[in-house]
């Protein structure tokens, strides 16, 4: 499985991107881990207001439910708990669902992670292979 994401400012300008490959897990876990990684990078970068866009409705639903009462029953409890702790920090974070068709940058970065298992990469500027998807997402 692979995960990836892009960090853009409110004007849509690239602030960074990441990819990571892992040998085990399912799609929901990959989405949750990608959200965790992206939030961590935003926190470390000093962002105070963050909008997380995710095309996995299951992950968005889990994180929008701020009640921890049922989380411990979920098979991905460990990641859900960590992400919810991050969401509770002193900052404003919006988590919203977007269609996959306008999230091609994240999928391209995640695909890179699948092909490069065991690697975690952060790009300060967009790599060449992301330029076309970046343009597509900006037009959407």
Automatic annotation (TrEMBL):
Transmembrane segments: none annotated. It comes from the Eukaryota. Residues 2-112 form the RNase H type-1 domain. One of its GO terms (molecular function) is nucleic acid binding. This is Ribonuclease H protein At1g65750 family.
């Amino acid at each position: 499985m692979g995960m990836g994401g892009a960090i853009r400012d409110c004007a849509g300008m690239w602030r960074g991107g990441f990819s990571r490959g892992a040998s085990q897990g399912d799609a929901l876990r990959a989405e949750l881990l990608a959200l965790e990684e992206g939030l961590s990078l935003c926190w470390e970068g000093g962002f105070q207001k963050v909008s997380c866009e995710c095309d996995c409705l299951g992950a968005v639903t889990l994180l929008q439910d701020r009640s921890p009462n049922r989380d411990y029953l979920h098979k991905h409890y460990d990641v859900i708990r960590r992400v919810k702790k991050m969401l509770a920090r002193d900052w404003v974070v919006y988590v919203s669902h977007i269609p996959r068709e306008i999230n091609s940058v994240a999928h391209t970065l995640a695909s890179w992670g699948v092909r490069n298992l065991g690697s975690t990469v952060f790009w300060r500027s967009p790599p060449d292979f992301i330029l076309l998807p970046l343009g597509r997402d900006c037009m959407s």
